[in-house]
Amino acid sequence: MNSTTLPRFDLYAQIHKALRLAMVDTLARFGSLDAGDAGQRLEAIAQLRMLLDLCRAHVEKEEHHVHPVIEARCAGRSLRVAAEHVEHLAAIDALEAEAVAFQCAPDAAAAFRLYRHLAVFVAENLEHMEVEETVHNAALWSAYTDAELLQVHLAIVSSIEPGAMAQVLHWMLPALNPGERADLLLGLRATAPAAAFEGALQVARLRLAAADCARLERALDLPALAA
Ligand SMILES: [Fe+2]
Fold first, then answer.
1. Who surrounds ion ligand 1 at CB < 5 A?
2. What distance in angstroms lies between residue 12's CA and the mean position of ligand 1's atoms?
3. Among the listed residues 191, 197, 208, the one whose alpha carbon sits nearest the alpha carbon of residue 162
4. Is 164 domain-assigned?
5. What is the pLDDT of residues 155-171, one digit of tens each?
6. How far does the centroid of ligand 1 lie from the alpha carbon of residue 86, in Å?
7. What domain count does the chain have?
8. How far is the CA of 70 from the centre of ligand 1 (A)?
9. What is the sign, positive or negative, of the torsion defined by CA atoms of 175, 178, 184, 188?
10. Domain membership flag for residue 110
């Protein structure tokens, strides 16, 4: 592989994998929901709220940390995506209102309507993320070095509160492939406070299948928890 084909630092890849998993999992949960089961209903609504909080925070991070970087050297290149963010924030508000209405009047028709509206939101976001990973990355890669993009990434990560980070990792760790997962934890161990690494490891042990968890522990040279 010569230097022109080496993969570039991708600001979007891992967080978008997390978002895609959170979106499709939440959508599937609403599709199979028994609207008459109060426990299932509350869990589904709580997961939807978590997803919407995650999406809102993600838009804010991109607007605050990524778009100014694109505009500084590729003026106008983030305008389409920025306009879509305005629509997404409105869709998030509408889905939140619909979730409240469903909670107050839970019936199967309302559950199905919410499921369909969530499906449209997911579809729009899947296409949107593809534009970011192609058009935006092309702009970023043409105008910035990987070292500069890493600084943008570190600024984003350091701006996330611990509670919100746990939510991100809840979806990101199972969404990543084994190599990405190991690199993420190795990076945390090398650069973050010990509590952050331990917290991430705890999320991994809760969220990963036993074989995936054992593979991660081997990559980190940790003793496996299970005997
Ligand atoms: Fe976005």
1. 62
2. 9
3. 197
4. no
5. 999 999 989 999 999 99
6. 10
7. 2
8. 13
9. positive
10. yes
